[in-house]
Specification:
alpha/beta, Quinone Oxidoreductase, Chain A, domain 1, Rossmann fold, 6-stranded parallel sheet, 15 strands, globular
Length: 331
Amino acid sequence: MTGAPAGESTRAIVIAAHGRPDVLQMDTVALAPPGPGELRIRQTAIGVNYHDVYVRSGSYQTLSLPGVPGLEGAGVVEQLGEGVTDFAIGDRIAYTDNKYGGYSAARNIPAAQAVPVPDGVDDVTAAAAFLKGMTAVALADSVHPLSAGMTILVHAAAGGVGRLLTQLAKARGCRVIGTVGSSSKVESARTAGCDEIVLYREEDVAARVAQLTAGRGVEVVFDAVGADTFEGSLGALGVRGHIVLYGQASGPVPPFELSRLGAKSASVTRPFLWAYVSTPAQLRSVAAALFAAIADGELKVEMGGTYPLADAAGAHRDLEARRAGPFVLIP
């Protein structure tokens, strides 16, 4: 094990109070030596997710303040904590950490939450796609396994997860109806593979889906938007249809009567990725599937933009303005 000098520090974005993007402020934070089972990594790229917006705004009260947000990143191993045998100094890794701390130049992470990044995937792509891509893989393979012949609805099909999920669905032989919030995002959704595209702010989603499916509806709706789209999701379902509500970019879905699901024997789930990567074996399996899909060309990761770590606020503004991501911070 290599040690780190006492009093070491690193640059990080700190939230002292919930609020608008300008609460994201660069600061210097203490950095202890890596503990048993931990890696010290020098971060090379940091993923930005809508979850980070919820944390910053206070919609999710899951980060103790003052605190460093950020769920994922990629970097190089610089030190090993006691007992770490799966990694070596100099290894390239990606990680996700639901205890946050990602918006920093260097950090310690549990080795169990890291995976090797293969040579065919660069650090920026790994950081941009890791959490979103694993979410897409879990949605397509575990939450509602997709197979040839299915007709599905993907909300926010031009978004970070939406584009990846659409590509996976097409690779599995599904017909994908995608929704987008504005005409400027139609081409991005079409490039991802959507067979038909609905402007959910301008069209009646349920009516349009009924038209596109000869009244049958879809087998599953993947909804990351929430409040603005949920009623359309309900209306778009076919018999025994399934709504997978995996985000709430427009706000939480208001309470509704479960009996409304009865007419179609429908179901609703609210999955979070952590339940599907809760062990090192699960994490490595899902990550391996993601990186293989990227290396094989099954998944094409289109970058929305890179920002200096100090401009995390700019990345959040663009994300909330619904500019197409994914976005990455560069320390």
